[in-house]
Task: inverse folding
């Protein structure tokens, strides 16, 4: 597996300050496939200084030229699409077909969308006797997770560059090889030195140093709500802007008029996608009480078809976390109808596709984010009860509603306390804003709303 033994700083690969390394392990066979530097506070400081030095020139670069660099970045990523998919499969364990269709393809589309936005977005507007300028917020500290390693990088770096910001990226330590490949793509796209910088390292060391650095104007973080709270507190002490995309416990609400079989099958597929490691996964399936047994049977049958084809979770630690939640669900009285805590293979960090029935809304498995292939089926009495259950967690990231009449589904969706709702299996839209209510985060990613996170506003009165 190809990997650089340095960090990407000021347009070149350079040795890290320390000698510590992070081993990258294949979740399928548990073999070490690469090593990257464990960057520290000194590396972060050097990267931030490079980004700050490059900021004035990049911020002054015409949007059309920034768009050209993003177009070139998209093109480099497209040329290396197969290599991207292979890299994600190796370090995340994602099945090759899913790596091609999602992990490689979606970031290319998102990069292209920001190339177009950079060229077409109005960075200035007239409001009465004022001219309002939308200017880059400054240096961005981007801290990304492992579950969609390239997509999460592109969803932060592309809008930041489009806005005229410079960036220091600290990727997840589980999937740093994808981040190094992205840095190569940035270099190949002739993005000016210092505009993008990469420091691989551990969250409590490099991530914390980046969040705390006085030279960073905005911290954009995707990950757990617990870490998001710490980053928000750190940034708040410095009155620093944050964009946080955090956890979820999304409800898949199947209304009485819906096509139950289709809604259940699509819902199970949604939860099992990426081995359940998706913050927006519909992990709570809400079904009418009168059709509860039928829905449970359909869900159990659908889950059983996946076997271990969904791939492993990312690490031994993550596997034990997921298995611990499954055991807790059983202990609290939920009924296993598919899967369970037993490992389906002797080797690799696999978790059996799991479905719980007889789940009550207050159970731990119905309230906390598990981040694995685990579905809870919950019955409801009427639509008001369904709404109460759907809104009854601290999260509000995504969700789904199914009904025979689209207007009925939309009316219900408008009452859900969540940032994104799919109606009758609506497709992912890379231009639509993505982000959460409540403890699912602050701010939005993707499209024009994602670009706005990296801009600040100045008005000139005449």
Result:
């Amino acid at each position: 597996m190809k990997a650089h033994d340095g960090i990407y700083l000021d347009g070149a690969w350079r040795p890290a300050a320390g000698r510590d390394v992070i081993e990258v392990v294949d979740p399928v066979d548990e073999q070490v496939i690469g090593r990257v530097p464990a960057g520290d506070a000194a590396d972060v400081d050097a990267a931030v200084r490079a980004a700050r030095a490059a900021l004035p020139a990049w911020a002054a670069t015409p949007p059309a030229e920034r768009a050209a660099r993003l177009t070139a970045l998209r093109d480099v990523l497209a040329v290396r699409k197969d290599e991207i998919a292979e890299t994600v499969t190796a370090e995340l364990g994602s099945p090759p077909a899913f790596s091609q269709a999602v992990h490689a393809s979606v970031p290319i589309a998102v990069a292209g969308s920001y190339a177009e936005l950079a060229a077409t977005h109005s960075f200035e507007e007239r409001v009465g006797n004022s001219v309002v300028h939308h200017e880059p917020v400054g240096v961005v500290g981007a801290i990304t997770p492992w579950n969609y390693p390239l997509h999460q990088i592109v969803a932060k770096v592309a809008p930041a560059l489009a806005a005229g910001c410079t960036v220091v990226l600290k990727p997840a330590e589980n999937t740093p090889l994808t981040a190094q490949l992205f840095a190569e793509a940035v270099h190949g796209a002739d993005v000016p030195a210092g505009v993008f910088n990469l420091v691989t390292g551990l969250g409590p060391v490099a991530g914390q140093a980046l969040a705390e650095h006085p030279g960073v104007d905005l911290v954009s973080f995707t990950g757990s709500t617990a870490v998001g709270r710490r980053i928000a507190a750190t940034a708040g002490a410095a009155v620093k802007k944050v964009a946080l995309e955090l956890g979820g416990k999304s409800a898949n609400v199947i209304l009485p008029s819906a096509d139950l079989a289709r809604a259940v099958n699509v819902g199970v597929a949604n939860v099992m996608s990426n081995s359940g490691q998706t913050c927006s996964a519909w992990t709570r399936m809400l079904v009418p009480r009168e059709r509860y047994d039928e829905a449970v049977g359909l869900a159990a049958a659908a889950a059983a078809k996946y076997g271990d084809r969904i791939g492993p979770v990312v690490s031994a630690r993550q596997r034990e976390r997921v298995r611990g939640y499954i055991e807790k669900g059983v202990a609290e009285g939920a009924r296993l109808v598919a899967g369970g805590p037993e490992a389906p293979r002797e080797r690799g960090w696999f978790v059996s596709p799991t479905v719980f029935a007889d789940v009550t809304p207050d159970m731990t498995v119905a309230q906390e984010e598990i981040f694995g292939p685990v579905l809870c089926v919950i019955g409801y009495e009427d639509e008001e009860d369904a709404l109460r259950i759907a809104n009854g967690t601290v999260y509000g990231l995504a969700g789904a509603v199914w009904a025979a009449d689209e207007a009925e589904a939309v009316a219900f969706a408008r009452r859900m306390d969540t940032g994104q709702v799919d109606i009758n299996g609506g497709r992912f839209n890379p231009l639509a804003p993505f982000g959460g209510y409540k403890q699912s985060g602050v701010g939005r990613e993707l499209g024009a709303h994602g670009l706005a996170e990296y801009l600040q506003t100045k008005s000139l009165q005449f």
About this structure: The two ends are 59 Å apart (CA to CA). The CA atoms of residues 129 and 462 lie 5 Å apart.
